[in-house]
Specification:
Chain lengths: 751, 301, 206
């Protein structure tokens, strides 16, 4: 309230970078003053230089300016110069958005100036609806980190976080630390010359972790319940004995690893036969041999062994795993060396279709060839037990013939299955059935819950959302460790299939992200991608209709429900995408600096020429993550696009409330373009589900348009990547041409 | 001017009356002008060529080459051994390298050499004349001697295999070596650019045993030269020269083509450009006459 | 079946790869092939190989001794060295092919009458006689390798070329009467005999 009383607005219009040559700066100042109602309007020839910046600072300090509109370059440029954290600020993009993209020449002077005029109007209009974000008042000081899983990834994450000065708690299901690595005889080498299997080093790491002053370890324990949010998680740790202790932590690293794909599902490859083992089984034989010759379970020395790669993996039939687990070729090479190192006369064949040994694995592969391991490019069709040995039937892919090999032992290189907990897609169905009263579903729900790792008390289910096959959902390019549960980071094979070296790198990355999360939470700031953002969703509960759209649609499970089904926001879990705001049919959710009104006011501030002007107007709602940068890049590369568009950046297409579309069309815009990130299985959306939800919402807008007597083409959607600077200009020009063809909107003049 | 001294290994095909005798003739003026002194290795023997493997086997092949190296080492100490024939060069260089790498092979070779009263210490470097031209003389000095630039001639530079692989001329690519084109430019002619058969195999020794398969290769090599507007092919290889020139009439006979593309050595171009006579350039040694080159050679300046 | 072949089979039983590693020039490289097939695609006579080098390496590992050694394939090698320079694993493929051909020839199981095998033998005999190759005698020997009548036919078929070369002074009829030779012919004979003896000694199947 106090904010509004003291509000003093100021607009600063820059004439540098050629703006003064191309635009009537005085006219822009007049618009800011008369139409924008700015209390102060100043022009400057070089606003981002020290004199310009000082001028603004002086106004803030001496004139009491609280709201600043800078009409100069893009909001993405000169952010260090125009950094005024104590005031609300808007940026009218006259450089990248106008003079760099409007065609050269005096023929275009008029439309260029109109475009600039509108951006100044929009900047002023937005400013008046903005408040300076005050930051989340519910800050917490908890900076300890919980690591779930005490294997190679978990130990590494714990050690790295502890070494960086953070308290760490490890929860490990087994009786000792080490996890999967404990079962290995040796590991694939990670040091030059990459020629021989190496010691796993897990015992040393476990010892360092156990004795670390900042690490506490719960063995024989699981997580019974996780509640709270980054900076204030409460975790109930249940011991095997049944005893429960409570830990308060700031962030969580889930490093729960993997299990092997069950070879019992591969009877055609001998799964279930006595002399057929998986790679884990072979490690057990090697540990027993302890460096000597390897013997089978029946005690017979192995004189010949065949490794079958891609067993139950890269499967195209849909029966087994469709993916490649990445580590198994190198693992088989390592295991083949166990035999060759113990007895060079062992017939050792690795049968593969494509040998995939990333990193320095090629050197390891050559080393195995030097040791005499035979690599046969072939596809096994079956493994038969013949007497006390095995017969591998296969197609030799080089010689193109069906043939067979006899072996004392067959090793199946099966894939990694993540230990990820509950599949939330299955969960959601079961929960709604259970809520509907189905006894079977209730039973099913408690069965499902047994597999849960984190047992989150979140509205959206007990674990983090997963991709198909159970790997943690994350934006794999920009934010690989970020899961869809803020403050909870996935590391190691629970995130994607990987080898031990990759898992340790992964764990280090996840530990750093966890540290960042607790630090941000303690300052009341957002995590990625709006890292450092102090705004947070504010809900006007008195207007809420308990429709639950926000609690269901939040991609990050940030919103719970109270007993009356009202939303309960957990600000620290929130990524500030605004998907809830876009979802809300009664528009009661807003941010201090981003709301239905800040955008609505902008689009209404644009002057709409009448239907005889031959000047259509197109509103572009552009995602700030990729589409808006691409538009800026179009400017930077002087790619010309139509001067009839007016662009408003949005946090995510998920935050687009349909009221903006209807308002725009009612105001007489001829069309609306929505530009966001790629959606679908290989999404690029920085908020995971935003562009998908927007697309879903827009698919329903057709009826509204028809009701208004408008063609459905008046609203269009585009997937834009950050590199699409040329494509985006083409989208605009093609769409404007299409609208010209269609003729002006019949709504013009009624706005 | 002090001449550069080299131990010279001519090879069987360069002997008088043999298939590359005109090559032997043509290098004389070239070497004279460029200050290269080739000192023939006394009593040298055949290198075994690429086909020697069938009957010869590894050590016998190495030994016959080691004999030449040992003779050079003994009689022409301190001089690089130079050959004009790629097969001779390849066999000798391979031998020198293998004996350098394996003390076992060197011991075996010396045990056999002893029978001919020789011993090889391993101090000789085996080189090709083209290496001498490119590395020791250089393109600038090669150009400086030109008195009759071969203006108006467009020539396909056909490098072939063994001058180019597996050793090749240092710094050149195996797939598209440039030195021969540069030599063509150096003598004032125009190299046929984009000649894609530059390093194609002519069939080598299999021209005798697999004539049809080899003649297919040869036809490609010649036709591509025509396609690129060349009026002549130039090559550094004796076997390439012989195969590509000699079999054109056979191909014409069997396949009804009208191939008549002259094939000459780079040394013949250089000799003519340096003012040498038709005879000095060995231009009377062709079945398909390089008429234009002959005209230039016969012209007074 | 030759004695040496019988001995080899007896000694190595099913381990053909080991036999190749022990007895074939550069045979120890066979295990390093990674089956990319670049050699097969780089060979000028590629289409004429029943089994490409890539396949031959695979066959060796699969123990297909008879099929490999009696194959016509290695004799298709023109010694262009394309496979060597392109092999990403740096296998000396040309040498291995030569080595396999030579080994099969030595064991007496290379294909009979294979023309390249025959000219390879004639070439060596020719050079070993005087130390230098006599091109005329070599050519005539090649023409007559399939008997007298065929030889006359071959010679007649190529007489145009022969006359052309003679006119160009690149084929000398006088070469038939002696021709070029090394002075130390005898030393060369002894030297080659000794080299053979050493090689035989090393190649014994023990």
């Amino acid at each position: 309230m106090a904010d509004e009383i003291q509000m003093k607005t100021a607009a600063y219009i820059c004439s540098g970078c050629g703006l003064g040559d191309k635009l009537d700066i005085a006219q822009l100042g007049k618009i800011a003053q008369k139409e924008g109602k700015m209390a102060l309007v100043r022009e400057h020839a070089f606003l981002c230089n020290s004199a310009g910046v000082q001028m603004i600072r002086d106004d803030i300090e001496k004139e009491g300016v609280t709201h600043v509109c800078i009409a100069a370059c893009s909001r993405r440029a000169k952010t260090e110069a125009f950094h005024f954290p104590t005031v609300a600020m808007t940026r009218a993009n006259l450089r990248e958005g106008v003079i760099w993209v409007v065609a050269e020449g005096s023929d275009h002077d008029e439309v260029r100036q109109e475009m600039a005029d509108d951006y100044v109007r929009m900047g002023c209009a937005e400013l008046k609806k903005m408040k300076l974000p005050q930051g989340n008042p519910n800050t917490t000081r908890l900076k300890s980190i919980l690591v779930v899983g005490g294997g190679m990834s978990g130990l590494t994450a714990a050690f790295e976080a502890a070494e960086s000065g953070y308290e760490v708690v490890i929860v490990e299901k087994q009786a000792r630390l080490g996890g999967w690595a404990n079962k290995l005889w040796k590991r694939v080498p990670f040091k030059a010359p990459y020629a021989d299997p190496q010691d796993t080093g897990v015992a040393g790491l476990a010892a360092r972790v156990s004795s670390h002053p900042r690490i506490r370890v719960h063995l024989n324990s699981t997580v019974a319940e996780t509640s709270g949010a980054p900076g204030r998680f409460t975790v109930k740790v249940a011991q095997e004995s049944g005893a429960v202790t409570e830990e308060a932590v700031g962030a969580i690293v889930q490093a729960t690893g993997f299990t092997t794909y069950d070879i019992a599902k591969l009877p055609e490859l001998g799964g279930g036969q006595a002399n057929v083992v998986d790679q884990a089984g072979l490690e057990a034989l090697a540990q027993t041999a302890n460096g000597g010759v390897l013997k089978r379970a029946d005690g017979k020395e192995v004189k010949s062994v065949v490794f079958l790669q891609c067993a139950g993996q890269r499967d195209e039939s849909g029966k087994h795993l469709a993916y490649c687990s990445g580590h198994c070729c190198a693992t088989s090479i390592k295991q083949a060396m166990y035999f060759k190192d113990a007895n060079p006369d062992t017939d050792t064949v690795v049968m593969y279709t494509d040998l995939r040994v990333p990193g320095m694995g090629e050197d390891f592969y050559r080393s195995a060839q030097r040791k005499g391991v035979i690599f046969t490019k072939g596809k096994a069709s079956g493994v038969e037990a013949v007497g006390s040995s095995c017969k591998v039937n296969f197609k030799d892919l080089i010689l193109d013939e069906d043939t067979s090999l006899d072996a004392d032992l067959v090793v199946l290189a099966t894939g990694q299955v993540p230990s990820a907990g509950v599949d939330l897609d299955a969960w959601n169905k079961v929960v709604s059935e259970a809520e509907g009263g189905s006894e079977a579903a209730k039973q099913n729900k408690s069965e499902l819950q047994k597999t849960s790792i984190l047992n989150l008390t979140y509205r959206q289910g007990p674990d983090m959302p997963q991709f198909k096959y159970g790997f943690a959902d994350s934006h794999f390019i920009c934010f690989p460790y970020e899961t869809r549960r803020t403050g909870i980071y996935a590391a190691g094979p629970v995130r994607r299939p990987m080898d031990m070296l990759q898992a340790t790198e992964d764990a280090t990355g996840a530990a750093l992200k966890a540290i960042q999360a607790v630090e941000n939470a303690s300052l009341g700031r957002a995590a990625h991608p709006r890292s450092g953002d102090l705004s947070f969703p504010i809900v006007r509960l008195e207007g809420c209709t308990q429709c639950k759209r926000c609690t269901v649609e939040c991609p990050f499970g940030a919103i719970d429900e109270d007993e009356r089904r009202f939303p309960v926001f957990n600000e620290q879990r929130c990524r500030r995408c605004g998907t809830c705001m876009g979802a809300c049919p009664v528009r009661v959710i807003s941010f201090e600096n981003y709301s239905v009104d800040t955008v609505g006011n902008q689009l209404k501030a644009v002057e709409i020429p009448d239907e005889f002007s031959e000047k259509p107007r197109v509103l572009i709602l552009a995602c700030e993550n990729d589409a808006y940068p691409a538009l800026d890049m179009a400017g930077l590369s002087r790619t010309v696009y139509s001067a009839f568009v007016r662009i408003i950046p949005v946090r995510c297409l998920g935050s687009v409330n349909t009221i903006w579309i209807t308002d725009a069309l009612n105001s007489g815009y001829d069309g609306v373009m929505m530009m966001g990130c790629k959606k679908g299985d290989d999404y690029q959306c920085h908020f995971v589900k935003g562009s998908e939800l927007a697309s879903y919402r827009m698919s329903k807008i057709g009826d509204t348009l028809t009701g208004m007597g408008l063609e459905p083409e008046r609203v269009s959607s585009y997937e834009v990547a950050i590199t699409d600077n040329e494509r985006v200009a083409k989208f605009i020009n093609d769409y404007v041409a299409q609208l010209v063809e269609m003729g002006p909107s019949p709504m013009k003049g009624f706005g | 001017m002090k001449k550069r001294q080299y131990a010279f290994y001519p090879g069987c095909s360069s002997q008088k009356g043999a298939s590359a005798s005109n090559f032997a003739t043509s290098i004389e003026v070239m070497c004279e002008k460029l200050g290269i002194q080739l000192n023939e290795i006394p009593d040298w023997n055949c290198c075994g060529a690429s086909i020697g493997y069938g009957e010869g086997g590894l050590l016998p092949r190495l030994v016959i080459n080691a004999r030449n190296l040992a003779l050079a080492e003994q009689h022409l100490p301190g001089q690089d051994m130079v050959s004009g024939c790629p097969a001779c060069w390849l066999s000798t260089r391979e031998t020198a390298e293998k004996l350098h790498e394996s003390s076992d092979l060197l011991a075996g070779a010396n045990e056999a050499l002893k029978e001919a009263g020789l011993n090889f210490k391993g101090t000789v470097r085996a080189r090709h004349i083209v290496e001498v031209l490119v590395e020791d003389v250089g393109f600038a000095d090669m150009k400086a001697q030109v008195v009759k630039p071969l203006e108006g001639m467009k020539i396909a530079g056909y490098v072939g295999c063994q001058t180019n692989r597996p050793f090749g001329i240092a710094g050149e690519s195996f797939e598209n070596p440039q030195y021969l084109d540069k030599m063509i430019e150096t003598v004032g002619a125009e190299p046929a650019s984009g000649y894609e058969q530059k390093v194609t195999c002519c069939g080598g020794a299999l021209a005798f045993s697999e004539p049809d398969k080899s003649q297919k290769q040869i036809r490609d090599i010649v036709e591509s030269a025509y396609d690129h507007g060349a009026e002549m092919i130039v090559t550094p290889c004796q076997l390439c020269q012989a195969n590509v020139e000699i079999y054109q009439s056979e191909i014409n006979k069997k396949q009804g083509t009208k191939l008549a593309m002259p094939v000459v050595y780079y040394s013949q171009l250089m000799t003519v450009a340096y003012g040498g006579s038709l005879k000095q350039a060995g231009l009377n040694g062709h079945i398909i006459q390089p008429e234009k080159l002959k005209q230039i050679a016969s012209r007074q300046k | 079946m030759s004695d040496s072949n019988k001995q080899a089979i007896a000694h190595y039983r099913n381990n053909f790869l080991k036999e190749v590693e022990d007895h074939v020039e550069d045979g120890e490289w066979v295990r390093m092939c990674m089956q990319c097939g670049v050699c097969a695609g780089s060979c000028p006579f590629g289409p004429h190989w029943e089994h490409s080098p890539q396949k031959i390496f695979m066959m060796i590992r699969a123990g297909k001794r008879e099929e490999v050694l009696s194959s016509d394939s290695m004799w298709m090698c023109t010694s262009c060295y394309n496979c060597i320079v392109r092999c990403p694993r740096k296998l000396p493929i040309t040498h291995i092919m030569h080595g396999l051909a030579h080994y099969a020839h030595r064991l007496g199981i290379a294909p009979k009458g294979q023309p390249t095998r025959e000219i390879a033998r004639l070439f060596w005999v020719n050079l070993a006689r005087t130390g230098r190759v006599n091109e005329l005698k070599f050519s005539l020997a090649m023409y007559f390798k399939d008997g007298f009548v065929q030889g006359i036919k071959n010679a007649l078929a190529m007489q145009g070329i022969g006359i052309g070369l003679m006119k160009a002074r690149r084929l000398n009829p006088m070469e038939l009467l002696g021709g070029h030779k090394c002075k130390d012919k005898d030393g060369i004979h002894k030297m080659i005999a000794k080299a053979r003896e050493i090689e035989e000694r090393k190649q014994k199947f023990v």
